[in-house]
Amino acid sequence: MDRTLSKEKLTILLAAPRGFCAGVDRAIQIVDKALAKYGAPVYVRHEIVHNRFVVEGLEKKGAVFVKELDQVPEGAPVVFSAHGVPKSVPANARERKLVALDATCPLVSKVHVEAERHHAAEREIVLIGHAGHPEVIGTMGQLREGAVKLVETVADAEAFAPADAARLAYITQTTLSVDDTAAIVGVLKRRFPAIAGPHKEDICYATTNRQEAVKAIAPRADVVLVIGAPNSSNSMRLVEVAARAGAGKSALVQRAHDIDWAMMTGARVVGLTAGASAPDVLVDEVLDAFRARYDVTVEELETARETVQFRLPRALVS
How far apart are CA 298 and CA 194, in angstroms? Predict the structure, then answer.
């Protein structure tokens, strides 16, 4: 007897693009190639990307994750995470003669350059982002304390009081909700028409593409699952975007064993995507978990094609 006959039918709408972006792929390659070149251990300041599966995989190969550089032996190789670091971190690495490898995503580095450009032009800088996120800490740490003011919400933008409204600029974290950020920028532009912005939007192509893909599947889905980590900004934004775009329910899962199967009761269509730091193997794991319980039809909806690649640091290119 064919066991699939006893299973409920379920359609899974698989969002594309999903999963690893070019910046995450580059960061992981940097750790892998550093291990190959220098041997274990290679130290990594903070999680290289926000995904425990990825971090634990690198730990098994010999990567050692630390909170701060004082945990790294003098002269050892150390990698800075994809989220970027304050300028004080590479300066400290030089003082301690560490072999520093910068895995900062080039699109985050672009925001750092913008901040310095605005500062050189004597503009007060507004950073739209989430307090405490490593990328925000790194971006604010490119300049002297107080040079960058953080705005998190529309209410913050309405309340913001610049020193000189004629000399003002904004930059943004790269992993925000496109729609939320547009609303905040709208308030700033209404209140301060002379405010300078980036030549090209700071929210990265991967964040934008993954949100657009979720918007395409959400209206048809009873439930949308986002594979990612709770400390991953881009993953959490996908959960919010799915809910706003019409999904019956939306939730974050780190692995297949995190799925709340009670949430699937009555569901006939499930949307599935993965944040930019979640590998394909976790998507396959979740699909297998559904196939074990349902007669699954997978339908992939592609809204964009990604071909972006970033170069590795010269020190790792043989």
Answer: 49
Look up residue 197 and give its two tokens: 């912005």
CA distances (Å), origin 230, targets 52, 253, 275: 10, 9, 11
Instruction: Give the active site residues.
Output: 135
Place of tokens 């301060």: 192
pTM, full prediction: 0.94
Q: pLDDT of 179-226, one tens digit each?
A: 999 999 999 999 999 999 998 889 999 999 999 999 999 999 999 999
Which domain CATH number covers 134? 3.40.1010.20
Joined tokens for residue 152: 């998190």
Q: How many domains does the chain have?
A: 3
Residue pLDDT, tens place only, 81-120: 999 999 999 999 999 999 999 999 999 999 999 999 999 9
If asked whether residues 198 and 210 sit together in one domain, one would say no
Instruction: Give residue 143's domain range.
Output: 107-203
The strand pairing partners of 223, in sequence order, are 249, 270
Sheet bearing 148-151, strands edge to edge: 148-151, 124-128, 168-172
